[in-house]
Amino acid sequence: MAIWGHTADGTAVPIYTLTSGQVEVRVMAYGAHLVSVRAPDRNGKMADVALGFDKLDDYLKVPNPYLGAIVGRYGNRIARGQFTLDGKTYQIPVNNGPNALHGGPKGFDRYVWQSQEVPGGVEFTHVSPDGDMGFPGTLTAHVKYTLTGNTLRIDYSATTDRDTVLNLTNHAYFNLNGDDQGTILNLKMQLDADKFTPVDAGLIPTGELAPVAGTPLDFRKPEIIGARIDDNNEQMKLAGGYDFNFVVNGTPGTLRPAATVVDPENGRKLTVETTQPGVQFYTGNFLDGTFTGRHGVQYTKHMGFCLETQHFPDSPNRPDFPSTELKPGHTFHSTTTFTFSVVK
Ligand code: BGC
Predict the structure, then answer these.
(1) What total number of domains does the chain contain?
(2) Could you tell me the CATH number of the domain that includes residue 313?
(3) Cβ contact 179:52 at 8 Å
């Protein structure tokens, strides 16, 4: 552990380095961010494969693109920032056009979490008070990062003292070429998803679960990410690239494959498994060069991809979607693993 810096109010921010085999991961207490991941290619050449900043100060800027952040209390969008729970309507301040995104303007990514070293990693804890960003109930959230072999595992858990809703995920942007090596359009990806949740112009789900078959969202077999990104497809045009929640095949609650991404040139491979019902595949469509990351590189469109394992967007308004409600006396659990290997 080291102190990486301080927030404006003087709070110290610990940063932790996890090493195992050839993978090295750094995580910090501010926003429980995944700061960096260094992984080898097929020749053993190491590179940073997750986008990030050199200094804590860059993470403190608002707004920022959530590079590696834990987003909450409700990751992704809630239509008009509104939902009804137990007959009462709640309003989350909107921060993405008419909608609330990633928990509203001051989400979990903007707090220094408590931290505790655990075998193989670190557990971060954040207590969000009743009424925080409009959400009901005091929510205690834990995010545990552990590294075993080449696998980074993130375990999420949470409890509440009143009925509430939650959706916790990690917003890491990966680039298997290396974080200073241009776009991710050359990477080959396979998604274990037969369906996705189509969206409207505000990227709010219409409620339908639509087949990916016959669309540029069909990654059931490995496909180059950039191959169909400019296709004349109504959904792709709305999102300006990929920015969709895919329904992960299999049974939510069981750890099962969600995605595999391979760099055909250098052999790096990322495998994602999750217990969550969905995964948001986002190709950094809104990265516009405003932010300069590590190695002095300006982050422009498509320089990273996110695989945000999650509950479906706007679930509090969609009784047909897997429920995001949490009640007192129950503990929310989810697990996602990111494994960094190589193909020969
Ligand atoms: C969303 C994007 C959004 C981005 C912000 C992603 O989770 O799907 O629409 O722009 O987060 O960084």
Answers:
(1) 1
(2) 2.70.98.10
(3) yes
